[in-house]
Amino acid sequence: MILALETSCDETAAAVVTEDGRILSNVVSSQAELHARFGGVVPEVASRRHLELVVPVLREAVAVTQGPGLIGALLVGLSAAKALAWANRLPLIPVNHLHGHVASLYLQPEPVEPPFLCLLASGGHTLLIDVAERGGFRVLGTTLDDAAGEAFDKGARLLGLGYPGGAAIDRLAGEGDAGAYEFPVARVPGLDFSFSGLKTALLYAVRDLGEDELERRRADLAASYQRAIVRALVGRTHEAAEQTGATRIAVVGGVAANSELRAALPDAGFAPLPLCTDNAAMIASAARYAEAVSSPGYLGLDAYASG
Predict the structure, then answer these.
(1) Could you read off the pLDDT of 80-133 as tens digits, one per residue?
(2) Taking phi first (over 0 means left), then psi (-120 to 50 degrees means alpha), and beta for anything else, what does residue 39 get?
(3) Looking at the structure, do residues 146 and 261 belong to the same domain, yes or no?
(4) Could you tell me which residues are beta bridge partners of residue 139?
(5) Please, is 15 exposed, middle or buried when counting C-beta atoms within 10 Å of its C-beta (0-12, 13-18, 19+)?
(6) What domain count does the chain have?
(7) What is the extent of the structural domain holding 84?
(8) Residue 262 phi, psi dihedral angles, 5° rounding
(9) Are 70 and 126 members of one domain?
(10) DSSP string of 119-184, one letter each residue
(11) Alpha carbons 1 and 201: distance in angstroms, whole number
């Protein structure tokens, strides 16, 4: 069995997963309410909250997220994992956070078997990935600026909605007309993404409306903005599938919970909703295919912000 910790951003999580991918325990303590007053994640606040929560989640529930993510947040989990491994004379498995999202597809009761094309869309990353085997993947495209989840969060702030922005826009979009505004979908070379122009277009649309008109059109703006993000994700995914000859598509990451994205890719395999946002079960799943570091070698491991 693998005990895993995940502290890359604003969820403090611990999980126990068996060798065959059964989740025995998956505890997640979210900081969303704490960061909502700021309209997004504040790294220093997240790090301090991880210090408060890491021991309680472990009591309910050793692999650990090494990166990418917020350095201060990652160091809390990495330090706790080192201490656990040292105290119990166990090896430590450092896991790449992105591998974790993909490995969420390998858990019971309905694991997805490679090969497949994977869209990873979250608050910090937007990637198209060629997954040939469980132990790794090849990146085909990435975002040149904002990630899709970040675009949702920034759009929600412009519309005066809450945090996390993706869920807030998804809820409001159900009340609006997605064809009311024609927001641009950036065309960049290769299989990369760009969402900064879309965010700017929403900013200008909001500025052009008075407060009363904005209140009346908020749902239409949310629906149209969401439609543009989903169009970009789905369009690039289909292009990647055509170029690679992929016959199966999978979607992971926080944005995988978006209702319109799920509807737009009806034949794709999606990560289960509880495993879309950051969690430790996915880290434990990835640890099954990563190399363990024995004592005392893991004491020298450090976190990394990108990669």
Answers:
(1) 899 988 888 888 999 999 999 999 999 999 999 999 999 999 989 999 999 999
(2) left
(3) yes
(4) 129
(5) buried
(6) 2
(7) 2-107+276-300
(8) -65, -40
(9) no
(10) EEE-SS-EEEEEEEETTEEEEEEEBSS--HHHHHHHHHHHTT--SSHHHHHHHHHTTS-TTSS---
(11) 49
Domain shared by 136 and 250, yes or no: yes
In CATH, what number is assigned to the domain containing residue 40? 3.30.420.40
What is the reported pLDDT for 12? 83
Specify whether 248 is located in the same domain as 129: yes
Q: Which two tokens stand for residue 197?
A: 């122009």
Token digits of residue 213: 């008109």
pLDDT of 38 over the 60 cut: no
Do 54 and 12 meet the contact criterion of CB atoms below 8 Å apart?
Answer: yes
Does residue 305 lie within any of the structural domains? no
Q: Rounded to whole angstroms, how far apart are CA atoms 26 and 31? A: 16
Residue 77 within a domain: yes
Mean pLDDT, all residues of the chain: 89
Closest CA relative to residue 75, chosen from 306, 284, 301? 301
What is residue 51's predicted lDDT score, i.e. its pLDDT? Answer: 56
Which phi and psi angles does 28 have, rounded to 5°?
-130, 125
Tokens matching residue 256 = 């995988």
Where are the alpha helices (H) located in the chain, listed in sequence order?
Answer: 32-36, 43-60, 71-87, 97-103, 148-158, 165-173, 196-207, 211-244, 259-264, 280-287
Is 83 buried (19+), middle (13-18) or exposed (0-12) by CB count in 10 A? exposed
Beta bridge partner(s), residue 14: 5, 27
